[in-house]
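Batch manifest, entry 17 of 40.
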Amino acid sequence: MKNENVRNRHAGTVNNTSHMPFNFRGRAASGDREGAGQDNKRVQEIAKGYRIRRRREEEAVTAIVLAGGMSRRMGHDKAFLDIKGEPLIGRQLGVLKNIFKNIIIATNDPQKYTSFKSVNPVRNNFSNGVKIARDVVLGRGPLGGIYSGLLASDSFYNFVVACDMPFINKPLIKYIIENREDYDVVIPKIGGRIHPLFGVYSKNCIPAIEETLKHDRLEVRSIFSKVKARFLSRRQIEKFDKNMLSLLNINTPDELRRIKELKA
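Output type: structure tokens
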């Protein structure tokens, strides 16, 4: 697949001691402990700087939870389904708040989530970083939700997830985020099936979405040819989520029953 393989950024590394930086080999041979200690300190400083930089990059991404669906097949709002003793939306926020500083719930019924937040904000994982945003276009499905979330976000990159996915996985989410560089969309594609409601979307998608909605096309996949999209393979996803439970969603009472029976 065109954009599927991860490039090896270290392909040109030479494992010969004659090419080692900071002249490690010479200092070790001469017994210069002071010099070696200084080099070790610098390596630690570089590693610390890298960790800080990665953390800042993660904080620069906002999570967008799509919670504007009609839930017709379920019969009632899927965001508030009880999953292992907690509401599904609270379960998701519990994972997302450990990754993202800012979270947006894009919904056509903000009052419902405002009321839910007021009941027990701690138990329901509503922190100060959770914002509720009204859909700016109604009746446009997930694509309209993504559009509304992107407009409400202060971040260029955003991680989008549907509110009916009970087993989202922190390591997998972080992996998808780390692969966003130079792309506008990064989502899984398993066996030819695209999973558009679990991945990264940049603000570059806004004009493409506007054009698509203007022509009454509501499929999220309709924008992929208009932006730089990357699709992650089964092998890449399974490295962080062996059974790919993160990609499961709930649409019907029967699916809810089966998901409750899962040991996850």
